Amino acid sequence: MRLLLSSAIALVLSAVSWLGGAISVPGSPPELDLSQFKDHQIITRDVCIIGGGAAGTYAAIRLRHMNQSVVVVEKENHLGGHVNTYNDPVTKVAVDYGVLYYENQPLVQEYFDHFHIALEKVPVLGQRSTPRRIDLRTGTPVSPATGDMSSALAAYSTQLLKYPYLETGFNLPNPVPPDLLLPFGEFVKKYSLEGVVDIIASFNQGVGDLLQQTTLYMLKYFNLNVIQGAMSGFFVPSSHNNSELYGAAQNELGQDALLSSTVLQTYRYEESELVYAVVQTPFGKRLIRARKLIVAIPPRLGVLHGIDLDESERELFEQFHNTCYYTALARIPGLPQGTQITNRANNTNYQLPPLPAIYVINTTREPKLFSILYGSKEHMTEAKVKASMTRSVIQLRNAGIPVEPPQFVGYSDHSPFLLTLPADAIRNGFYRRLNDLQGYRNTYYMSATFNTHDSAQVWSFIDRLLETDF
Over the stretch 109-159, which tens digit does the pLDDT of each residue have? Predict the structure, then answer.
């Protein structure tokens, strides 16, 4: 139920909260008693941010530039979210196996420039590898993709140009264009885009069943900026270490980044000027009180632990479905250096492998290490993912590659990944209602769910929201 306070009560609550004292509001989560917290346990900031990934970290840095005080609550012992970097203890080479590239956009350059981190452009298609298309169910070779990719990309780009509002956020017109609600496989057939499916599959990893996924999400993921990067190159730090960005941000935030910390309970009173969060840190419980709350984690009910959702918030978030995505780094004895294995399937539409499956085995900057990208529709444990990866790698023996089982040195579960909705929910105005949550109960949402899984696109979305609401 929503908690309603009269204006008078709200003013009293606001004043008492800043001075300290007990808060007892009927219908709230377990009562918040400020007297349980000593002065050194109370953190007062303009904005409390839950989540220190790409969205939460960027929002924190930008807000500080806007002269607002922040605190970031991050469950891991470092910032970075989907960024995963392995530092080889022998060669000292840093190897990224999570986020790899950034688009050539001014805000990307400005963000890295702020930390004095140099960028360089790198090609992606054909980079450092000899690609082989193999059906990893059997180890048999798969023929090259058919169709004219160049003309198909041009036709696909023409479709993207119809929907400029997809570039940032989900500000969809009413009614929603029917083409956006088609299964992507039907959209491909309708506009004769068969030649672009293979390259989209190479970039839209982690989206589940590509052909059954709603076209809206595929157009947002494989957008014009990604096409430009695919053709002309993406940016990477000159150090080739994506964790450098988040290490620099962590240093700048200092004690304003609460690492290895989790939210136990939030308290958001609808007519109050303040929000509260009780947080478990390595140094004990802390009480954060702030004027605004930013939730920079996926809005899935299973993820929003401790956040005092009301019925309207819960009713929206429970409609989301999600895909599952995993990345690993491994030594694969017997796999030649510089080899890339693209998993494609014989006897399927567009040669796309049925999930769960490896998407690709990629060479890395460290010649003896390979990244393995893997997707599934339902969540899998680490043990099951690694066992499936191992079985698929062993199938390479049938392709004449004398491999041994992979020796894993890094692993990350990026689930829940892409959050999606059925076409009917989109048609019936879900995203209008979701956008209306921005500012509701002094809370704002800034994650890939509100734009797409692309760091530059997430940062662009955040910039617009900060400019209008902060």
Answer: 999 999 999 999 998 875 555 689 999 999 999 999 988 889 999 999 999
Q: Cα-flanking dihedrals φ and ψ of residue 21, to 5°?
A: 145, -175
Cis omega (within 30 of 0) for bond into 356: yes
Q: Is residue 11 part of a domain?
A: no
- Tally of domains in the chain: 1
Token pair of 377, please? Answer: 């529709």
Candidates 79, 205, 109, 216; CA nearest to 459 is 109
pLDDT digits (tens, 9 = 90+) for 175-220: 999 999 999 999 999 999 999 999 999 999 999 999 999 999 999 9
Residue 246 φ then ψ, to 5°: -75, -25
Angle, helices 149-160 vs 224-232, to 10°: value is: 150
**Inside any domain, residue 219:** no
Q: With CA atoms as reference, report the closest residue to 403 among 351, 344, 339, 312.
A: 339
Q: With 0-12 CB in 10 A as exposed, 13-18 as middle and 19+ as buried, what is 383?
A: exposed
Alpha helices in 175-296 (DSSP H): 184-190, 197-203, 215-221, 224-232, 243-253
Q: Is residue 371 part of a domain?
A: no
> Could you give the 3-state DSSP secondary structure of residue 454?
coil
Structural contact between residues 369 and 88, judged by C-beta atoms closer than 8 angstroms: yes
* Burial label, 22 (beta-carbon count in 10 A; 0-12, 13-18, 19+): exposed
Does 301 fall in a domain?
yes
Give the residue numbers spanning the domain of 72: 39-83+239-320+421-469
Q: Decide: 426 and 169 in contact? Cβ < 8 Å.
A: no
Task: State the helix-helix crossing angle for 54-65 and 243-253, rounded to 10 degrees.
Answer: 40
Structure tokens given for 178: 């029917």
Look at the alpha carbons of 50, 56, 57, 59 in this order and tell me if their dihedral is positive or negative.
Answer: negative
CATH number at residue 464: 3.50.50.60
Q: pTM for this structure?
A: 0.91
Ordered alpha helix ranges (H), 191-271: 197-203, 215-221, 224-232, 243-253
Q: What is the pLDDT of residues 14-39, one digit of tens each?
A: 333 333 334 333 344 567 888 899 99
Residue with tokens 């953190």: 43
Look at 272 and 426; give whichever has higher pLDDT. Answer: 426
Query: Is 366 within 8 Å of 88 (Cβ atoms)?
Result: yes
Phi-psi region of 254 (alpha: psi -120 to 50; beta: other; left: phi over 0): left
SS3 call for 6: coil
